[in-house]
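User: Hi! I'm working on a homework problem where we have to compare a predicted structure to a textbook description. Could you give me the structure for the chain below?
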Amino acid sequence: MADFEIAYGETEIREGGYVNDPVDRGGETHRGVSRKFNPDWKGWVLVDRIKREHPTDFKAMINANVELEALARQLYRARYWVPIRGDEISDQHIANKVFDTGVNQGVSRSVRYLQRGLNLLNRNERDYADIKVDGKFGDLTLKTTTEFLDLENGQPDYLLKLLNLMQAAHYLDVMKGDPAQERFARGWLSRVDLC
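Assistant: Happy to help. Predicted structure tokens:
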């Protein structure tokens, strides 16, 4: 079964520290936790206090705060790992990809990529039946993921390629629709692995 700490470790490297870029659609962000999409995160109270108490060097103090790191880890587990049933996914690479994409593009979108990928790789339903692409990681999605991996002798390569392609296509669509977002291309594409 997949390990949250491994998945979190990979995602944490990509997310970085405190940022408040007005062009970023997520707005104010710390460790990848967007205030816009996670306004009730307990860490924001601490971030705001640090900003008030240390107006000139708040970024460094926020980035070094151990309590904020622990709060971010808790949020990632509760809002991104648990909904994708990461502890139940038998392949660490698949769990890492669905988790990381969920953090960056939303859990529902990430799960839809997984569901679409599984449907595309079932050889026109000869290997297993299509599943509903609804963005909800239910029992059938888990069962089908396991069936796919069993049929592939535990090799997730083709599914991972599809997940990466769908993820990259979304980034291209975002940049096409809003060229100001091109400044984030390198960071987004660092999440896409096509080897």
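For your comparison, note the following. Strands lie at 29-30, 33-34. The chain has a mean pLDDT of 96. Good luck with the assignment!
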